[in-house]
User: Fold this.
Amino acid sequence: MTRSLTLRAAVLSLTLLAAILLAWQVAVSGTAKTEAMDPEYAALMGATATTGKSAMPGPLDVGATLWQHLKDPFYDRGPNDKGLGIQLAYSIGRVALGYGLAVLVAIPVGFLIGMSPLMSRALDPYIQILKPVSPLAWMPLALYTIKDSGLSAIFVIFICSLWPMLINTVFGVSGTRKEWLNVARTLEVGPLRRAFTVILPAAAPTILTGMRISIGIAWLVIVAAEMLVGGTGIGYFVWNEWNNLSITNVITSILLIGLVGMVLDQLLARAQRLVTFPE
Amino acid sequence: MSKLLPFRRRMQAAAADQGARTGRMANSEKFISIEGIARRYPAPGGKTTTIFENLWLPMRRGEFVCMIGHSGCGKTTVLNILAGLEAPSEGAVIVDGQALQGTSLDRAVIFQGHALLPWRSVLGNVAYAVSSRWRKASKAEIAARARRAIATVGLAGSEHKKPSELSGGMKQRVGIARALSIEPKILLMDEPFSALDALTRGTLQDEVRRICVETGQTVFMITHDVDEAIYLADRIVLMTNGPEAKVAEIVENPLPKDRDRTQLHHAPGYYALRNHLIDFLVSRSRTLRDTMPAGYDPRHPPVVRSSLSEADAAAIAAEPPSRRA
Assistant:
């Protein structure tokens, strides 16, 4: 039954894909009404105005561009012409750095807050106020203080990844079952060993949930951040191609951004399964 | 019924005879001595609720003591204080001549919910306790000790299963193995079998009794189950209802130390004892809280004791051997 369900789902998925591609192709291949105009003016106007051809690329155009990019992802012909592989690598690198820093800060701090009701109460207002701030609002402050656009982008990733991880770590740590802590107490387990052998495994699934939320947010934010700071990265590429009016490249990037985001999420989902324990 | 009546009368006589036979335990006999402990919680309106106060209870080495009482009488609090998980608001507990402070590896707790760490295997759970007890022991030694404890509770072969793969009874066995693995001086059990079905409960009671008799454990156990208390305990502590619960009396179990669970209800004096305990739970636990009999001394709660009379002994001898086991 599961097998046939998988099969049926696959068939439905592929049918939907075919339908979307067909609709897309039909939508962009139609010709709109054209108006009679002066030939010299028409020469300036381009195909959309003169022949009614849609400026929107069809699926075949996007497919061809995607194939071009995948064939040679790492070419580098100057600052404004780099392969998509290089652009994605820049973005992933920034996310990895900012996110990694956030892990290093959020988990130990979350442990401290979660284990101490005093710290929890004292720091709660700060977290509550800073959490809802859009990470891009930090950008000017980061640019002014750090004075480096690349580092500022990493800082923005750091700050947006921090909160979900911090809050989930606090939640996981403070929610460690009292009976497990009592077991550690009756066995005279020291605080450090208790943190690593009881609290960390007990809180790990919740912490990983926070890490998974964070990586999703970081990947969302990096595109916007790179549009602002420019230079390199997939976000910059999208904005650059918009300025080039290359809708084909924009759509190609959207597909690749989605793909990378999915891979990142799946990696953390797998890590989450490793630490989850059935009760 | 005729067999039960003398026991009844003797019990009443014993209670009336308190002045002469106080049942007081000599100081040298006391292994654990609960001395005037109280537990109070702040209540709304700036008042305090007293769960119990001025509670005194001595225990001998190697003795199996059961505490019976209704919910809210502070049984679990007494056990937590003995374990060192909670501090009394007043009073002290002396164990082996030393005032008790905090938890100790000498006092193992078997929790009501098994409290196993679900991310560790059976072996991992027991080894965690063993490695806490013997911090410098080698891995092989820790594993060997853990395996021995697991075999004691009859779980050999399940070492690598996770708690989620075990039945309720097996989980509780792991809890018992974990407690025994650290070779404690005192075993504290908080309704360890209350969540199990009757059959599993019976076999686990047998195991616990066998292990405790073999190792000479001193045990303090909380239970709601009168039959469990009769089967396992040397002495049964009866608590009146809370708040302001008191130790109403301490019943000494007259049944022979060599007991068989399946034949217990044939033992002379069994029903008299059982009726006495149930009467207490049904009515006296409530009436006694309001009015304690004159001359009640919380430092020396009345000890109800009875030894088997010659008639009872004859009745045991007359039982067919199959029933005695």
Chain A touches chain B through 18 residues (CB under 8 Å). The mean pLDDT of chain A is 91.
